[in-house]
Input
Amino acid sequence: MAIKREYGKEHPYIPAGPFKIRLPFVHLKFEKVDYFQGLLLCAVCLGAIPMLQEYLGMPFEVAMTVVVLNGILYFAHILLGDPVIPGWITPAIPLLILHISQYPVGPERMHALIAFQFSLGILAIFLGITGLGKKVTSIVPDAMKSGVILGAGIAAINSILKNGGHFEKYPLSIIICVGIGFYFLFSSHFKSIKNKNKFTKLLSNLGSLPIILLAIIVGPMVGEASIPNIEWGITTLAFKKLFNEWTIFGLGLPPLKMFISGLPMVISCYIVLFGDMIQTQCLLEDASKKRPDEIIDYNPNRSHLVFGLRNLVMSIFGPDLTMSGPLAAAMQVVLCERYKNGRETMDSIHGGAISYRYGTLSGYLLLPIVTLVKPILGIALAATMLIQGYVSIKVGVLKSKTVNDLSIAGIMAAVIATKGAALGLASGVILCGFINIRRNNKFESSLFEEVNTECGINIKEVNLEEA
Output
């Protein structure tokens, strides 16, 4: 039986320096719905396997072992105090692929990946230890925070809709499954009827699980995915082969030039990570407004330490193209939406997060689950990116305080989505410098007040939550 939390308090933990240790089943309650979501949504994480095979030349068993190792390290965030579902550094994956593709497949390419991920881990740990991680997120203007989040949302949607993307491969499946999933997750109409009977209440608590279940059925029906060929047993892993042929234990340490050449990529990746942390803060702040029974503590410095350690460990034991990021945005969105429904739905956000990761790890290891979702991995990944895009755009807009903020954010987002994170951040700095160089509250009204003036709407009479 998990330790109960007093109303309006932070969830119980064991203090350990910057960390807040919460033990499974002692501090963290098991949440069945989140577990079963993770069990089938492991399909998203398994989407890393084709990338590892294509760009690194890894056999399936070795790539699967990397995914499992990464999956085990996901627990570090929740066990050490972060109220998040951690995941990939998704927007940076195309940049990293471009970086390592300068080198031929084999030891040289692996050395480039190892050097990059090791350097990223060291940078994150340094920022966490010195406290600079939290300072960086606190001094950035709202306009730039908004722009980074909007840019991440647009980039996520573009990754699905681009030429040769997943939408071209699974158009009907994505339209049907994601459309119905969005209705259950975000529709005002569904929110108004969800408590009318047991069935609609159950659907409201399932998060994005219906999307995966529908994809398994709809994909084969419309001819965009094969019927699953279920196999029984435990997934075969290849730790020995991974260590001997794909890590520093078999390949040796990368040369110094690999660390130097990878520094621009490390900086670009950190810009993306910075956006993930901003998005995490916004999602948790939004969720906490609906749950006065629990104080949520998100500390960017602690987050830096944990995902820095994860990248450091993975660079040594299982270098990974998806990298170790502080947030699985689409999953966190679903977690927060369920969490908002009240304590009877999810006791603590920490329990929901770890239960989800129980599910994904179980899914990796159970061969029936792996073979069940294997044909619809592309649809699952598309759903994840589209959910992330939808919520990123909503949160990004709401993060802007004025029309000037939103305008700067819009330009910044366009640059990020088309030219990359580095140029996007630079455009935000320049625009904020020229437009918001000397803010004066006497002359600058809020975003809603400016909309009120332009459109003749009495914003005080509008229920923003329902809108």
About this structure: The beta strands are 9-10, 14-16, 19-21, 294-295. The radius of gyration is 22 Å. DSSP finds 25 helices and four strands in the chain. The longest helix spans residues 263-288.
